[in-house]
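User: Run a structure prediction on this.
Assistant: Running it now.
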Amino acid sequence: MNILAIIPARSGSKSVPHKNIREIAGKPMIAYSIEHALNSKLINRVIVSTDSEQYADIAREYGAEVPFIRPAEYATDTALDYDVFKHALDYLSDNEGYKPDLVVQLRPTYPIRNVEDIDEMIGRIEADEEADSIRSIGPAKEVPYKMWHMGDDGVLSAFAKDIPECYNMPRQELPKVYYQNACIDIFRPRAIYDYQSMTGKKILGYLMEQNFDIDTPEEFLRAEQYIKLMKGGHRFVFDIDGVIAQFDESLDYANVGPRPAMVKAIQKLYEAGNEIVLFTARGYVTGVDWKETTIEQMKKFGVPYNELIFGKPNADYYVDDKMLDMNLLESLFN
C-alpha cells in the first residue's frame, strides 16, 4: 500500500511562538514527528505541509519532503484540517499522479509518541475495509454527562440528553467517555473526496494513556523533561516510604503496599537506561534490620533498581538542589 504521512506545520502560533520549530531537548520540535514517520515500518512517504520556507528547510534537513509551500489561506488560525489535507492530496495527484491508499496525520506538536502505535493503527484500519478512519483517543478526565449548557437567561439544560438526569448519577454508573488526543489520525482519501471530511462515517478508536500534545509553555517544559529523562544515562536516588511504598506512621514496613504510579515511573526510567538507587531510613530510628524484608518487598512491587542503600538519616524535611518533584515524575509516566 501507498501510505503517506503528512505533518502539518504552519508558522503561526500564538500560545508558544514558532512552537513547531522551537528547540526541545536539542532538536526543533517538528523533527520528532518526521523521525516517527521515517521510523515506521509501514509509512513509505513523509511530507511536511507548511507555509514557511524556513520550516521547509528544517523539514528537509531531517528527511521529509516539502513538494509545495502551503497557500496562505490554508495557514490561518481558522483554517480547517480538511482544507489543508485536500490541498496536499490534490497537489500530489495533479502534479505527480500520486494517490495514497492511507494518509497518516502526525501533528508536530507531539514530540513524544510510540512508533509502534502508528504501525498498529495502520494495521487495524487496513484490516477493516469499511473503516474510513482511525483516531487515537484517551480517557476523558471530565465527564460530559455532568456538564451543562446555560442560556442567556441563566437557565441550565443538560449537555447529554440520552440518559435521563445523568447529571445526578454516580460517575461509575455512566458510560466511559474518551477524547481525541490528536496524537495520530489515519484516514482513507475517500473520507476527503466522498464525505468532505477528515474522518468519514466509520471511525475506529485507538486507546492511549499518555498525552504530550503541546499548546502552552508549561506543556512544552513537561515534554522536554520527559525526553531528557528517557534518553537514559542519569542516576536517580529514590526514597522508599511515602514515595515507592505507602507511608506507615507505625514504622512497621512489612505490610505496606506500593504506590503504583511511582513504581511505573521507576520501571520506565530503568528501561530507558537510567541507574536507580534506593536510599532508605528504614531502621534508622528503631534499629530494626529491614534489609531482607525490603528486598522481597521491592521484588513483589516490581521495582527495578541497581543499588539499595540503608542509613538515610530520618528527618522532618529534606532540602536538595537536584530534587525532582515526585508528583511531576508520576504525571510524566501515568
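The chain has a mean pLDDT of 93.
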